[in-house]
Amino acid sequence: MNVRSLARTTLVTALVSVTAIVVPGASAVGNTRPSRPAIDALTTGDANCDVTRAAAVRDRPTLNDAGADQLPARFEAVRTGADGAEHRPRAATAPQPTGSVHAWTVPDTVPDDTPVRWPVRAEDGVGDGPWSDSGHQGRCHYTTVTQPPPAAAWRLDDPNRSPWAEAWAGPYRGMAGAGVRFGEFGPHGTAPGAAVLDGGPDSYLNTGGPVVDTTRAFTAGAWVLPDDTGREMTALSQSGIADAPNFTLGTGIAPDGTPVWSFDLPSADGRTRVTGGTPRVGEWAYLAGVYDPVAGVARIYVDGDLVATGNAAVPEDTPQWFFLMGRRDDHDRTRTWQGNLADVRVWDRVVLSAELAELGRRKPRAIAHWQMDTVESYGGPMLTPAVDHRGSFVLNGDAHLTTEDPIAGIGSIRLDGDGDHLESSPAFDTSRSWAISVKVRLDGVPERDMAVLAQTGLHTDAFTLRYRAADRTWRAILPHADAAGADTTELSAPATGGTQSLLLQYDEKAGEARLHVGGALAARAPFAADDAWEGLRLLQAGRDSAADGVGDHYLKGDIDEVRAWAGVLSAEELDRI
Length: 577
Description:
The protein is mainly β. The strands form ten sheets. Strands 14, 16, 18, 19, 21, 26, 27, 28 and 30 form a nine-stranded antiparallel sheet that branches. The longest helix has 14 residues, at 3-16. It is globular and about 75 Å long. It is built from three helices and 48 strands. 5% of the residues lie in helices and 41% in strands. β24 and β25 form a beta hairpin.
């Protein structure tokens, strides 16, 4: 077995033992049921449960309950079969001493490439606890992935001061030069999630050898953020000999002096260089170079989109040498990378455009989730906290918690339409992709306009989600500037009465705003990136702003389950919500 095959076998073996750790909740006392497991206490392997997207596993996962509860834990693996029916194999563990781990391996009757959700609950035989996916708190999902793994990969999410980047595929760690620092924020807003390279002569990570045979099909990709576009820079490369790299992938300069993405390969008569797209200083992009010797082409993809293609044929006798991040192995140190790198992967195959599109999609990051089941005070105003206390809504006026006929969970916030509203710090940067959702129930059929959500700027709202009485519609309004009277993009959808689930999102890449009502896309409209701007003041629920931030359009009814994300939710993620 060669080194690469051994590395792949090791990777797959490690992935077979993926685990899911859950805390089922406190045991029953008297006639009290065990509590529902909190969604933020659930993990699949080392990945937190993300209700917006499925965890990817390579084999049947073992689901573990590592909570301190002594009660049995019952697991289910729920899927929809080819017959359209729901299948839910389940198992319960025996009681365990406090601190023990409950474990269940999903049976092989659950096929691969099938989305599976798995809830868990604590059971005491008298008053079993609620399932972890009850109460509108979301579901944990996983999907087995059968595509071959990368030949080599580095997340570059190593801790600050680490001397190397650990590999999660392939045999080599990346030894960091003095110009590399770990621990930076990555493309999805998490830290540590990237390495920053200073562009100097030691701005690189070196490995112990080649990771692919570049005379055969291969793909190299990474999240990249350039801090300089005025010169040629190398993000990824593999060395040859005599200053002739096997390939380089990074930025270049077009003949007209504009910056471009560049993919460079050896050819029989010198070099083949494919260029396209436009790198921008300080902006993340997923950059991938694909060499397809059967088709005789090289391609560049940026954020999953094909931006350039050209003829290519790498000579069969091309020598293979070390793989590098941040520079090419020659004597010219003017082309070292200055900026950030994250999630470097190299495959010994042509990666399909659909795979690159998924890799190049900025995964939405949950910013806050207000369940509105509780309120609290610390000697000041009443607050309803977000999950994990990542921000709170301040209750103003007579706004209060009601547990009578809540919209979701055990409570909702009641507003009387006469000055009641909620305020929090800004939920997200409204100049970039974002999404926000809410459940709302208006009193009767209102005869005046009422605001559900708004994020404010200095002179107007960056967005407003409002009920319009004149035609009984939900209306989303997005001004093109932080100025009273600015042009706006507006979306409209019928308001049918009763409880409504609303979701508004802005897709920066597509240049579009979308309004979802009751889980379905109800309206969409162009909204260019140049028209988006950052609302820096407040996120409001139950009112919006008139000129210069004065409150208006107070809502009379109930509000519940406000969630906010940075990024765009896919159709699959919307279905899960």
